[in-house]
Amino acid sequence: MFPRRTTKPVKIGGVTVGGGAPIVVQSMTKTDTRDVPATVRQIRELEECGCELVRLAVPDQEAVEALKDIKSQARVPLIADIHFDYRLALGALESGVAGLRLNPGNIGDADKVAAVARAAKERGVPIRIGVNAGSLPKHVAAGMKEGELAPRMVDVALEQVRLLESLDFDLIKISLKAFDVPSTIQAYRLMAEKVSYPLHLGITESGPFRSGVVRSSVGLGILLYQGIGDTIRVSLTAPPSEEVIAGYEILKSLNLREKGPVLVSCPSCGRVEVELMGLVQAVEQKLAGMTRPVKVAVMGCVVNGPGEARDADVGLACGKGRGVIFRKGEPVRTVEEKDFLPALMAEIEAV
Ligand code: SF4
């Protein structure tokens, strides 16, 4: 792993992004923001699975009005996602949001951007400059040749950074999202060389659950491995809680965050002599929602079983119709196949 890039921290409510703080996992509600009960319900679900920042689309004045009510019921800091109309950004700030995501380029003339920057600064509210490949200004997107997407996205973002800096505003985060993974990686790497503002990572519109998780994991994983990234959002056409769970799994796989259990399980093969897949699914279900960072291994046979089981907090190495349970590296008991699940869970509870 490369050392993490040094960035200037910003505070979004009580959550620090950048400056060496743990990488923050965030998501976005998918309800109509004007529907306060539905939005609050979804925020609650996100809070329960560990989402640390929640962004909401604020497309009109009615959504701005709803924000105050939503905010009074949310524990997690809220970020308003604004496009085109600077009055919505001002209204969102008045409602007490902890962050803004906007694209100063589509807010219009400098006076309007200055009004937003002034109001955000007064409240200590950071602004994320969010550049997406799909919504580049027409003159930037026109005539783009292969390989030019990343530098053009960076140029657009830098122009907006300079605009905010010229207004004496530096509570800035930046994102440079594209569906294309190599372009996204290139864009973030270029930006990381140019500024020290914290970076919000994402692969935009990454798709439905399965392909989206893979695409996001590859893109975010490469950047995170290179020390780039201060907060992440996995964008999926799926319930937002799945985005949060996937985000933590990405960070856990690089040892960047601890969150709940880690389940090690072998793929099984012709050597297995127990019903392993059903067992692993059952263990996974039982572990869902557990918050303790416990490492559990469920292994099919003696080839790799004892080694992985020893290495976990609680491990099961199966044999023919029975298995050995390890706790903290030591074998503690032998159990029959029918007792695998309750025996494993009892050890996990006890560890
Ligand atoms: S641990 Fe055993 S059963 Fe599992 S994949 Fe390896 S060899 Fe096959």
In short:
This protein has two domains: 244 residues, Dihydropteroate synthase-like (TIM Barrel, Alpha-Beta Barrel); 89 residues, Sulfite Reductase Hemoprotein, domain 1 (2-Layer Sandwich), CATH 3.30.413. 42% of the residues lie in helices and 19% in strands.
Outline the structure in words:
- With 351 residues, the chain is an alpha/beta fold.
- The protein folds into 2 domains: 10-253, TIM Barrel (Alpha-Beta Barrel), CATH 3.20.20; 262-350, Sulfite Reductase Hemoprotein, domain 1 (2-Layer Sandwich), CATH 3.30.413.10.
- The chain contains 12 helices and 15 strands.
- It has helices at residues 36-48, 61-73, 86-94, 110-123, 138-141, 149-166, 181-194, 209-225, 240-253, 276-287, 305-311, 340-350, and strands at residues 10-12, 15-17, 24-28, 53-57, 78-82, 99-102, 127-132, 172-177, 200-201, 231-232, 262-265, 295-299, 314-318, 322-327, 330-336.
- The strands form 3 sheets. An 8-stranded parallel beta sheet has the order 8-7-6-5-4-3-10-9. A 5-stranded mixed beta sheet has the order 11-12-13-14-15, with helices on both faces. It has a two-stranded antiparallel ribbon with strand order 1-2.
- The two termini are 30 Å apart.
- The mean pLDDT is 95.
- The chain binds iron/sulfur cluster.
